Amino acid sequence: MTDVERADGSGVDDEVPVACHQEAQIRNVAVEAGAADPESLGRHIAVIFEGANALAASCNDVELFTDARRAAKTLLDVALSAAPGR
Fold first, then answer.
1. Fewer Cβ atoms within 10 Å of its own Cβ: the N or the C terminal residue of the chain?
2. Digit-coded pLDDT (tens) for 36-67
3. Domain ranges in the chain?
4. Rounded to an integer, what is the distance from CA 47 to the centroid of its chain?
5. How far apart are CA 54 and CA 15, in angstroms?
6. How many CB atoms lie within 10 A of CB 86?
């Protein structure tokens, strides 16, 4: 599943905010990568990038995305090293 589906399984829920669709995509990548807890990892990375987006807009500082990328990489490194079989 790459999108947020309707609860009744009848397709993609277009009323779900874009950030939720992005979180679902991140979660799916985390599952494919073998993360120990892809649900949590997806939420954490989504929070990092949503926070960077908000701060960059309010502070007019795009460097925050570089910081967010570094933080997300650290989370990924930790999550994937903790995955079973690694």
1. C
2. 888 888 889 989 989 999 999 999 999 999 99
3. 18-81
4. 7
5. 21
6. 8
